Amino acid sequence: MPTRSPDPDLVNRAEAAAILGISVSRLDRLYHDRSTTGFPSRADDGHSWHRSDITRYRPPAEQVTRSAQASIDRSGDPDELVDAATAAQILGYRERSALHGNNPVWLRLKECADDVSLTPGGRSRRRWKRSTVWTIAESRIGRGGTSATAGRPAGTPTGRPDRSGDPDELVGRAEAARVLGYSHPNALPPQALDRADEQSTGPSGRRRLRWRRETLWTMLDERGA
User: Please, are residues 184 and 168 in contact by the beta-carbon 8 Å criterion?
Assistant: First the structure.
């Protein structure tokens, strides 16, 4: 199975687990017991899920907490700088490839790198203090050990909306999510995706969406009303 779904409206196991803040093995159990857990059915391809279904799903809170807490490796020097492969292990992922693309944990890691350098090939090499990775792990499951999804539906705005900037500027998913108060691009609801002002397809076939800031502000006004 690919590490990232080629269709932005679909998510694979690793992406779905990252959105929900649970381990892949926990996701597998929820899907296996979907008659009682209510876990969404797979998409027509038989191995992916619709992103909107996963975003709306709420796992049993106490089970999410136990799974996420148990998966974190809290050993080692908190000031030691680690690479992405080690960060993935600390976070409880089996493979480095889980930290990729639109995985919200990976997006957060990229924002919070403690050291950035260039490889001989010109690519960015990021490293993090173990303490930074632990902090991100805690935010993944919520403060005080409670699930980030407990008490509210996934995809609920949690940040402060932003109305600054040029109203005609076109922005991508990450900035659109920030403007609307969402914690990461994957939390954007389907209705927000449908109102993108510009849609295009990249060389890899991935759909690219952009919004005018004024469009996002209109969504904020409607939400407030």
Answer: no
CB of 118 closer than 8 Å to CB of 124: yes
**H/E segment holding residue 49:** strand 49-50
Nearest to 23 by CA among 180, 140, 156, 144: 140
Kindly report whether the global pTM for this prediction surpasses the value 0.85.
no
Length reported for the chain: 225
Q: Could you tell me which of 62, 56, 109, 51 has the C-alpha nearest to residue 85?
A: 109
Taking a C-beta distance cutoff of 8 angstroms, is the pair 147, 141 a contact?
A: yes
The parts of the chain modelled with pLDDT lower than 50 are: 1-3, 62-70, 141-156, 158, 225
Within its chain, how far is the Cα of 125 from the centroid?
A: 21
